[in-house]
Design goal:
Two copies of one chain form a homodimer. In chain A, 29% of the residues lie in helices and 21% in strands. By secondary structure, the first copy, chain A, is α+β, with helices and mostly antiparallel strands. In chain A, the strands form three sheets. A seven-stranded antiparallel beta sheet of chain A has the order 1-8-7-6-5-11-4, with helices on both faces. In chain A, strands 2-3 form a two-stranded antiparallel ribbon. In chain A, helix 2 packs across helix 3. The longest helix of chain A is centred in the middle third of the chain and has 13 residues. The interface between A and B is large, with 41 and 41 residues.
Amino acid sequence: MRETFHRRALPTDAIAFSSPEGRGLFSEALASAGLNGYFPLAEQFHTQSEPAFCGLGSLVVTLNALSIDPGRSWKGPWRWFAEEMLDCCAPLADIRERGVDVEEFACLARCNGADVEVRRGDVSNLEAWRAALAMAASGEAVVVASYDRAAMGQTGSGHFSPIGGYHARKDLALILDVARFKYPPHWVSAERLWQAMACVDPTTGLARGWIVVRRSAGARITDPGGCCVPEGAI
Amino acid sequence: MRETFHRRALPTDAIAFSSPEGRGLFSEALASAGLNGYFPLAEQFHTQSEPAFCGLGSLVVTLNALSIDPGRSWKGPWRWFAEEMLDCCAPLADIRERGVDVEEFACLARCNGADVEVRRGDVSNLEAWRAALAMAASGEAVVVASYDRAAMGQTGSGHFSPIGGYHARKDLALILDVARFKYPPHWVSAERLWQAMACVDPTTGLARGWIVVRRSAGARITDPGGCCVPEGAI
């Protein structure tokens, strides 16, 4: 019989959101404007709906937190983003097996009403990452980290999750881990997370990194099928 | 073509979680121990997976927030609660059409490793409700409200959602509304919510109310099918 798990223990250098230390960090960050972006994300923070849907799950949280109208129904009369509606850029059946890479994440975000900037970990630096964390903290944009779990001392490999806040004085990022069946949200060293974003994704040969997502100002309306042509294909 | 919606506007006496006023209430409640129970719920707050699954969605949030191990797999190797796993006490196909009532909610909670107390709104009083809110605020138990949306000036009728915290000085409850495609989390008058819990559910002829849920101390292990016999049937 296959081994099953009810959650996993975080590595010792990650501080769980609900732990006494995590609550203390939360209060400090809240008081120092490190959690202005937390509120809309907390409203939409959810569990990735499939084990390989960390990218889609992070994108669902992001698009709903940005209050983007998908322009098509989810269930009943409600227009709403859920993973199964992100069926473009790559076949959903493939994504269910292998997840998405950073480019596919960006493609899906663009096709669904968001403006996106991709930063590769290997050609960035720690100061740029701290500037992105400050942007996430301010709520000016949603920042999604694409990182290697193993480099963080966690089980697993490539993973996506949104950044919920930044404790600047202690240089700690709050990861809203969408694999909520595995790890709770946690605070981690900004530098360690940056290193984990510089790891190469073996499926693309490119470094992971982070994605800055904003609601598109223009009328980037999804087509009736809810998909679009990836920019690289035009 | 049927009308569709991207969210709904809250009634004017409800204060949205992410609004400037909502953020202020959050900071005040956090500083006065009104949000001790918020943290585990925030980790698991999610969107009900079907339009009629407000009860099941609230229970999924509750069971996962209480760290109850379902004893059976959700997807992949992960043991985790999701709505489609709560297939006992009433047929899931029926629940998809009509939702659950308070007794079915309690039955499902008991069958899945929780201890439950049900309080009917019509035979309770405001002080008992405030005591329940204080319990939710402390994190000693999870409190789920079953109320009539219309009595709150909202569209819709019967609804369930967990209580995320309590601002005692202003007598405001934080509702973590699981219909996140409709309303954001919001602060409401404890008294108005209590009145909405005293409304009669026309399907049962009984008043709505609230449910206090705790992790069961005993070894209430789910059977391999993940179901059990409702207590009333023993």
